[in-house]
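To illustrate the input format used throughout this study, we show a single complete record. The first block contains the structure-token representation of the backbone; no residue identities are included at this stage. The design step must infer an amino acid for every position from geometry alone.
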């Protein structure tokens, strides 16, 4: 007899049915016994109970005014309310009896219809009220609908725990991944969303967001402060998976998009659970399986043993199919790497490139294939033959790459200078992080083409208010203003390279994020020094003096010249260190 796995949970319909049963009734079914042992299922059942209680607390719909007036008028006139239903052709003796019996039947029917209408209005209600009823266990957040359609309004509810001491407002922010259009000139990065969440009378916090029309997946975080910093604390996270045509389950596109964008590391609800329930035969299910990390290192042997059998089974299944999704082929390549089978990974990578050359997974896996060849000591000419394919795949994918950093590392090691420069410009245009102005940024920006690439990226971020794909990370989940601050700092560095010092100062003002987070201070210090205001530059140089590797006292002396005083310089550095310590204490 098969047993319901603790990782394979009953459906929501089954849990809803269990919520209406007693503990004795639940114990008679396999799903009920599973729920008795599974904390997640018990929390879901508790959520259904909370949903029912919320529905019962809702006021009944008011009687329409005209209907109430008509009933009152008939009552005052002495005419039976059911008189129009009489059979006027019946004999007088029968009429009264039939009327009363008929009215009794109709009355019961009317009451049943009215009761049904009240229950229906309470349970389903208008669409805009659905998020009010979304239930959550204490200390957790829920989203309604659980699998929304692209473009839908989504309600978020956070139920704090019993010892909660927060204020009346929380803030929701996150990243929503968009559908990739095959013929788009440039594929979009994730879109930032944010909204306040207000505390309701029942103590829960509620808010709403509207998903973009092209939404696929995403991750949301609920934080205690609108500005990221030492006082802000994340209290809950949610994984966003948009629905398929049925509206009841996540689409395969959404599941694959979440893997591509690493959303499994940014939400408490793991992608593994979603794959296990909705796409158990998909290879990517095993890429996001973190269960072995919970059991300790001794389970690695079991992982490899079962993983090899699973890989062989999936290989047989996919080889028997004619139309295999790109993400399935990519998943097989990544599974092969996890089993330390680089040759098999290369075969699946080559098949992906042959069958779906424009898919964004191709260039990432090609770079990984080259890196594995490096690790195994492959001849340089074997590696060099694959380098041009990176350019081809980049063009076919319209500049979309899942892991641009790995591509750049491979190119730097094995490509000629022209190819390295071409990829450096692409990386700048895509928004790769630049070194500080003390560590090579100004040297890079002496190149006019590099200036143009960095400026195009920064202005795109400021104009479209969209998070670049290269910043689609867990840190970007906190607040999109980080990306805005970096964009302003890049423009300030370009102004500095063009000797537009006052413009650089104005742009660094916009790059300042908070009292504890200031971006572009190195650019501001160098701009002030260029303008001859050495004294004003000292507070902006001092933060770098706390790290002797970044700015040594000798380097500070060379920058400040005659204005350098060892004692005053150390005081400025110590003052910065004290502020940073205060910020660390606030963070705790």
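Output of the design step:
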């Amino acid at each position: 007899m098969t047993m319901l796995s603790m990782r394979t949970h009953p459906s929501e319909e089954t849990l809803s049915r269990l919520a209406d049963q007693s503990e004795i009734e639940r114990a008679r079914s396999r799903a009920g016994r599973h729920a008795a042992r599974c904390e997640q299922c018990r929390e879901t059942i508790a959520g259904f109970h909370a949903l029912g209680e919320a529905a019962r607390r809702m006021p009944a719909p008011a009687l329409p005014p005209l209907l109430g007036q008509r009933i009152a008028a008939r009552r005052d006139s002495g005419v039976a309310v059911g008189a129009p239903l009489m059979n006027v052709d019946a004999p007088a003796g029968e009429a009264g009896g039939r009327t009363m019996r008929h009215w009794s039947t109709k009355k019961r029917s009317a009451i049943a219809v009215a009761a049904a209408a009240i229950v229906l209005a309470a349970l389903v209600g208008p669409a805009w009220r659905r998020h009010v009823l979304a239930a959550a266990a204490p200390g957790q957040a829920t989203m309604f609908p659980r699998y929304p359609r692209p473009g839908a309004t989504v309600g978020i509810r956070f139920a704090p725990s019993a010892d909660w001491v927060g204020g009346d407002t929380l803030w929701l922010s996150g990243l929503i991944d968009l559908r990739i259009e095959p013929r788009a000139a440039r594929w979009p990065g994730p879109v930032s969303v944010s909204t306040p969440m207000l505390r309701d009378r029942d103590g829960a916090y509620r808010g709403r967001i509207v998903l973009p029309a092209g939404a696929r997946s995403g991750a949301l975080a609920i934080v205690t402060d609108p500005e990221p910093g030492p006082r802000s604390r994340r209290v809950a996270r949610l994984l966003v998976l948009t629905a398929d045509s049925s509206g009841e389950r996540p689409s395969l596109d959404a599941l694959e998009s979440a893997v591509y964008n690493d959303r499994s590391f940014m939400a408490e609800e793991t992608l593994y659970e979603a794959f296990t329930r909705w796409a158990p035969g998909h290879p990517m299910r095993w890429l996001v399986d973190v269960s072995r990390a919970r059991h300790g290192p001794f389970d690695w042997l079991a992982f490899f043993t079962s993983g090899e059998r699973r890989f062989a089974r999936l290989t047989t299944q996919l080889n028997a199919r004619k139309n295999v999704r790109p993400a399935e082929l990519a998943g097989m390549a990544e599974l092969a790497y996890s089993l330390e089978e680089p040759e098999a990974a290369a075969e699946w990578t080559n098949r992906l490139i042959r069958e779906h050359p424009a898919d964004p997974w191709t260039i990432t896996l090609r770079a990984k294939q080259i890196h594995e060849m490096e690790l195994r000591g492959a001849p340089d000419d074997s590696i060099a033959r694959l380098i041009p394919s990176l350019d081809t795949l980049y063009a076919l994918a319209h500049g979309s790459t899942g892991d641009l950093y790995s591509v750049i590392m491979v190119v730097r090691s094995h490509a000629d200078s022209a190819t390295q420069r071409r990829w450096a410009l692409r990386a700048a245009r895509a928004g790769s992080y630049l070194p500080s102005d003390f560590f090579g940024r100004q040297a890079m920006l002496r190149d006019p083409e590099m200036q143009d690439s960095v400026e195009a990226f920064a202005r795109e971020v400021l104009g479209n208010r969209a998070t670049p794909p290269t910043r689609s990370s867990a840190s970007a989940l906190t607040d999109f203003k980080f990306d805005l601050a970096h964009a302003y700092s890049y423009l300030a560095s370009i102004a500095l390279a063009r000797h537009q010092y006052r413009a650089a100062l104005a742009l660094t003002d916009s790059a300042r994020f908070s009292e504890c987070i200031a971006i572009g201070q190195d650019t501001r210090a160098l701009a002030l020094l260029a303008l001859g205001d050495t004294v004003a530059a000292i507070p902006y140089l001092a933060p770098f003096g706390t790290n002797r590797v970044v700015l040594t006292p000798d380097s500070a002396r060379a920058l400040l010249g005659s204005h350098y005083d060892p004692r005053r310089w150390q005081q400025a550095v110590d003052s910065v260190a004290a502020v940073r310590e205060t910020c660390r204490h606030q963070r705790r």
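Structural context for interpreting the output: Residues 65-123 form one domain. The two ends are 51 Å apart (CA to CA).
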